[in-house]
């Protein structure tokens, strides 16, 4: 029986979303969905790349090992994100390490199984190329935002993405125009993702207070004026 949560994650994955429903079902049938506790290491940098992973629930972090016994988180992955794309190339190794940050559910497929499937189904190759192109465009947009946007704008853009993303469609409306979104990872990791120090993130939240942005517990954020925040984050039109 195909797990619906796994299918949903794959449909939201930029690499795999170009596959049609039947192709995605074939993909899921060849892999495994596993529940993993926080702290589980999926793979270490330099390991032979033998699996592609897709986050179904929870948070995973990609990082480069630092001094012995310490790690530096680089990029948090939420449901629908993938890790281990290096496995799509033959005889490859993982460029970074991956660790489960919060209890997670992860779909994995062995690269040899995926390769055999791709050998038989050229249409799958085309679909994955579309997905890779979409992901590349998304990364370019993120890099551009980091270079061009202020810290407050970066935070605002991220919060608006949570509002708009289907994965966050369970956000709670307050009935007065306010919206509550849930952060998919800690504020420390959010600062890392947005390319700023934790103290800069705190100041960015302060600058967005005029749009009714305020914390509601450890993981929830209230957006009191979504329209105002959206206008603030949009670049000015050239004159």
UniProtKB/TrEMBL annotation:
Signal peptide: none annotated. Gene3D superfamilies: Jelly Rolls, Winged helix-like DNA-binding domain superfamily/Winged helix DNA-binding domain. PROSITE patterns: CNMP_BINDING_3 (PS50042), HTH_CRP_2 (PS51063). The keyword Transcription regulation applies. GO terms for molecular function: DNA binding; DNA-binding transcription factor activity. PANTHER family: CRP FAMILY TRANSCRIPTIONAL REGULATORY PROTEIN (PTHR24567), REGULATORY PROTEIN YEIL (PTHR24567:SF26). This is Crp/Fnr family transcriptional regulator. It comes from Skermanella aerolata.
């Amino acid at each position: 029986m195909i797990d619906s949560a796994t299918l949903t994650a794959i449909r939201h994955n930029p690499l795999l979303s170009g596959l049609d429903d039947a192709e995605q079902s074939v993909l899921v049938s060849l892999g495994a969905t596993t529940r993993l506790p926080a702290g589980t290491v999926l793979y270490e940098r330099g390991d032979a790349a033998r699996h592609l992973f897709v986050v179904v629930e929870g948070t995973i972090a990609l990082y480069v090992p630092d001094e012995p016994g310490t790690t530096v988180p680089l990029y948090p992955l939420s449901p629908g994100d993938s890790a281990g794309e290096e496995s799509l190339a033959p005889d490859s190794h993982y460029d970074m390490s991956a660790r489960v940050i919060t209890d997670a559910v992860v779909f994995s497929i062995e690269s040899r199984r995926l390769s055999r499937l791709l050998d038989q189904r050229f249409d799958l190759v085309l679909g994955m190329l579309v997905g890779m192109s979409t992901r590349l465009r998304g990364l370019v947009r993120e890099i551009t935002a980091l270079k061009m946007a202020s810290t407050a704008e970066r935070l605002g853009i991220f919060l608006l993405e949570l509002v708009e993303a289907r994965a966050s469609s369970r956000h709670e409306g307050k009935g007065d125009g306010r919206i509550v979104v849930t952060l998919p990872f800690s504020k420390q990791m959010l600062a890392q993702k947005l390319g700023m120090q934790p103290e800069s993130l705190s100041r960015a939240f302060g600058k967005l207070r005029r749009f009714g942005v305020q914390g509601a517990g450890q993981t929830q954020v209230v957006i009191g004026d979504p329209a105002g925040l959206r206008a603030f984050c949009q670049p000015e039109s050239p004159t």
